[in-house]
Structures are given as C-alpha cells and as structure tokens.
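Hey team,

Filing this mostly as a record. A colleague (T.K.) asked me to run one chain through the structure pipeline before their review meeting, and I want the input and output archived in the tracker in case anyone asks later how it was produced. No errors, nothing strange. Just documentation.

Input sequence:
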Amino acid sequence: MAKKIFKTRPNHDVSQDFKAQIKTIFHHLTKEELVDKILANYLAQMASTKTKPEAPKKKKKK
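Output structure:
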C-alpha cells in the first residue's frame, strides 16, 4: 500500500480551495501521526469489508 501511495502522482485537478480545507483539518498532525491515522483507517476499512490487504508482489527473476 505504501509503495502504491508513493508512486501515485498528485492530482492537479483538485481545487486549491479543497486542498486548503483538507490541510486545515490535518495541519496540527505530524507526518508520523498522519501516516498512523491513514494506516489505521485503511486497516479498519479492510476489516469491515473482510478483505485482506494486498500482499506485496514478488519481483520476477530475469
């Protein structure tokens, strides 16, 4: 999941007003706190749908 998020390109179509609203909500959190909360939310969603998080894919040997 972390690699997927890391590789995600920013969506430049999101309005500056919406970004400002989101930043206002999270401005007091450290990066670590925000990551912890995102992970907890993701895991809770997976548990509620009874779906396990996707396992990391193994790289094929050349």
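Quick notes for T.K.: The two ends are 25 Å apart (CA to CA). The chain has a mean pLDDT of 87.
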